[in-house]
Amino acid sequence: xxxxxxxxxxxxxxxxxxxxxxxxxxxxxxxxxxxxxxxxxxxxxxxxxxxxxxxxxxxxxxxxxxxxxxxxxxxxxxxxxxxxxxxxxxxxxxxxxxxxxxxxxxxxxxxxxxxx
Length: 116
Fold this sequence. Notes:
The protein is an all-beta fold and 116 residues long. The protein is built from no helices and 11 strands. β6 (45-51) and β7 (58-60) form a beta hairpin.
């Protein structure tokens, strides 16, 4: 059974940084691409970034390119998005997702709020 547990959300000021974590279990983690998606209040689910199973490729939505960096540790079955230069419009519930887009199995989400 696929399980994804996000942690590390919270409040950050504009221009600040946060790093989320996603602990995965129930599947062969190193063989799976992993994505992050987010849902802002009143909006749909937005894909944010993806990383290949062997970290060979990373891709980002234009809205976060140059500010967010996704990485993974296959020994720990964990994937991390490092979020820098945060903006108020980054406020959302962030989900870890198994697969290459926002439509796979996802965790319960971690709230990120960017506000002064």
